[in-house]
From TrEMBL:
Top-rank taxon: Eukaryota
InterPro entries, per the entry: TraB/PrgY/GumN_fam, TraB_PrgY-like
Protein name: TraB domain-containing protein
Organism: Coccomyxa viridis
Length: 243
């Protein structure tokens, strides 16, 4: 019998550093009680959805680290990411992590707060979690390969300067504004102007992948679900290399 697509899909727009987004994510899951919850995260970044390092013998998602890598150990996770995406992807990811760290320190909120809230809410209603994003190593490798060497150096310079810049202008109002369509369009337009080659691998290709994850989620888990909940983050370029 052919796999059926979900009958209902609920998509909630969020921002990775937003406590309000965490509340929204939990509220939707509690109200809808879906069979599956699809998160915009891949296997390599599953550490971001956990609150702390698990006890020995439990799930082996690593304690959160600056690059949000997951695995039995940071070293093994790093090697896995390098193997999938190559050294160039790891260089770009490190620079993006520095940028994310700046935002996290300025706001006092660890990135992915809404995904952790979604995971807890999903567990509370016995919903299965689907990792919906394309592997970040592939995304960054494609973005890196799309740039010329001068563009690569320029992008790394901008990210590293941003990673150690002053945090005084960061505030929650600015973060919440990223949910506004006009602000998102403006941010994407700015990056499109400076680095048009990376827009497709970072945004459009991943949008298609996430849509596919929503469509296939019922078949992945093999449950007779009728309700799905999808988490699609606002396109915040500084978040751990994922957006």
């Amino acid at each position: 019998m052919l796999a059926q697509e979900p009958e209902y899909v609920f998509i909630v727009g969020t921002v990775h550093f937003s406590e309000r987004s965490a509340e929204d994510a939990a509220a939707v899951i509690q109200a809808v009680r879906p069979e599956n919850v699809i998160l915009e995260v891949c296997r390599s970044r599953t550490a971001i959805i956990y609150d702390h390092k698990p006890q020995p013998g439990s799930d082996h998602a690593a304690e959160p680290n600056s690059m949000s890598l997951s695995g039995p150990s940071f070293a093994q996770a790093l090697l896995r990411s390098a193997r999938l995406g190559g050294n160039s992807a790891m260089v770009l990811r490190a620079a993006l992590s520095a940028q994310a760290g700046r935002v996290s320190r300025g706001l006092g909120v660890r990135s992915g707060v809404e995904m952790r809230a979604a995971r807890r809410a999903a567990e509370a209603v016995d919903a299965q979690i689907v990792l919906g994003d394309r592997p970040i190593e592939i995304t960054l490798q494609r973005a890196w390969q799309a740039l010329t060497w001068p563009q690569r150096l320029r992008l790394l310079g901008l990210l590293l300067r941003g990673g150690f810049a002053d945090n005084s202008e960061l505030n929650m109002n600015a973060v919440e504004a990223l949910k506004d369509d006009d602000v998102i369009t403006s941010v994407v337009a700015e990056y499109s102007r400076k680095f048009p080659q990376v827009v497709s691998p970072l945004l459009h290709e991943r949008d298609l992948y996430l849509a596919w994850s929503l469509k296939r989620s019922k078949a992945v888990n093999g449950r007779p679900n009728t309700k799905e909940w999808g988490c699609v983050q606002a396109r915040f370029i500084g978040d751990n290399g994922s957006d």
